[in-house]
Amino acid sequence: MDRNSVIGFALLGVxxxxxxxxxxxQQIATQKEKARQDSIANxxxxxxxxxxxxxxxxxxxxxxxxxxxxxFAGAANGTRQTAVLENKVLKITFSNQGGQPExxxxxxxxxxxxxPLLLVNGSFNRISLQVPANNNTLLNTADLYxxxxxxxxxxxxxxxxxxxxxxxxxxxxxEYVYTLKQDGYAVDFDIHAVGLESVLxxxxxxxxxxxxxxxxxxxxxxxxxxxxxxxxxxxxxxKHDYFTLQRTSHQKWDNSLQWVSIKxxxxxxxxxxxxxxxxxxxxxxxxxxxxxxxxxxxxxxLEIPYNRAHDFSFPIEIYYGPNHYKTLKSFDIxxxxxxxxxxxxxxxxxxxxxxxxxxxFNFLSGFISNYGIIIILLTLFIRLLIAPFTYQSYVxxxxxxxxxxEIDALKAKYGDDQQAFGMExxxxxxxxxxxxxxxxxxxxxxxxILVAMYSFFPSSIELRQESFLWAKDLxxxxxxxxxxxxIPFYGSHVSLxxxxxxxxxxxxxxxxxxxxxxxxxxxxxxxxxxxxxxxxIFNRLASALTFYYFLSNVISIALQxxxxxxxxxxxxxxAQIQENKKKPASKSKWQEKLEEMQRRQQDMQQRRK
Length: 609
Description:
Layout: H1 3-44, E1 55-56, E2 59-60, H2 62-69, E3 82-86, E4 90-95, E5 100-110, E6 116-121, E7 126-132, E8 138-140, E9 147-153, E10 159-166, E11 173-180, E12 186-194, E13 206-216, H3 222-227, E14 230-235, E15 240-244, E16 250-253, E17 257-263, E18 267-273, E19 281-287, E20 294-305, E21 311-322, H4 325-329, H5 349-365, H6 371-385, H7 387-414, H8 418-432, H9 440-459, E22 479-487, E23 491-495, H10 496-511, H11 521-538, H12 543-567, H13 570-582, H14 589-608
Helix pairs in contact: 5-6, 5-9, 6-12, 7-8, 7-9, 7-13, 8-13, 9-12, 10-11, 10-12
InterPro entries: Membr_insert_YidC (IPR019998), Membr_insert_YidC_N (IPR028053), YidC/ALB3/OXA1/COX18 (IPR001708), YidC/Oxa/ALB_C (IPR028055), YidC_ALB_C (IPR047196), YidC_periplasmic_sf (IPR038221)
Pfam families: 60KD_IMP (PF02096), YidC_periplas (PF14849)
Membrane topology: Multi-pass membrane protein
């Protein structure tokens, strides 16, 4: 074995050891994180009273209950009872166990299977305050039985229900009051603590509100749902931010927050501190199960500032509803920002969506019920909007086509001397009155629209479960064939709109082949390779988006043919260029400096030779 072989095997050994070390470290970190999440889940899961342990001769043993539950011993046992608050869009079923919502149904929506859509369902979902028992232990009010629960019909058409958690002292209690207005997706949740300052520890200045939420599968594509399962929040200064459950398992804030929202793809549940109140801090732990129909789970602790007043109140508003832009904007607290209309380096396109796309879309949907037709009209409106840029791009393309024989002659004359070729090419453009960027700038002006559409269609709840042609749901992919296997970087289904979009993109690339630099293999073949590369990405995106891109491509192909065939006169353009060449060329200062720089570089190259 020679020296190079020994070195090669040694390097492979080091890489192998490093891989095992890194992999083991990752596994340990994953196990620790899972243990932490399981610990949090165990801490917050329901803890029913062990009746046998606290009874004697078949009746509750008050001394044992008092020893374990302290002043809240009377609430340790009870009979579960439910009550319902309901309006046109929302149905909330409450339970006296915990005095909290047990189920929340959005009456105007169905899940992907056509079943009633429940935002809250199951024992994992809890709203609970932590209160002290004996032996320095804490109780979750979600495990205790409240009194009350009678529904009251208010004069303004609202409905209210109140639950009271009693103590051994009748002048001390915790009360929850829920009020549901005649319409709308928000319910008022007012917390009253009366006389509890003597029960709580002397230095306690906050009440910990535990909010556990489980997001069940509502849409067809679980992977897409998990990518959109996020926690959004807004602080007291109006700053909005968010994180995705798949990427962040723990977050803590010590500053004041106005609201915290758990967002799904098309729905959200948000706790809003009303009036001038604010949450003094928060901590959120998340968990994304590896399998099953659970999209994600969150364990949120919202800190309520407690001034230890004898009669303390804290007003909260809970939003259970759709991610509908106009609805969320009506709250006037920036809640509409949870809808992804543009982020990252393309954050600016959210203004295109807010000021142009959404108003036009809402206007069209006001008198047209078929969303496929709305997309067609919206596409025509956008193409009309950018028509001047499109026309300028085609004119510039025609001018470059006329100059192509002269450019090819310059290439042949100067060969590999790119410096000299560049200078002469600029002189040619200047004398002919042609802007070499004339075709690029109009295309760049269209980019914000393309990106805005990429954000708008997948997040538009109006398109959810709306069908058009073969697409059963415009907010999800259109599958004409489900494959029994998964193709890497593509998927296990075939989207026809995506195939049509790719085909028309290739036709456009073929029609524009003269605009690319044929001497550069990358520039020559990229217009053909790029649509194929995007095929796998767009295959699982909203069919409304791929339909829009396909339709936009068809319009581009038709416009290109009409403009070049009937509007642009190549002979006239050629004559105009020849006239421009006869005019004395005036140089800008920038052009003079650029040419001087090019001359110096050319002189330096000649001296080196």
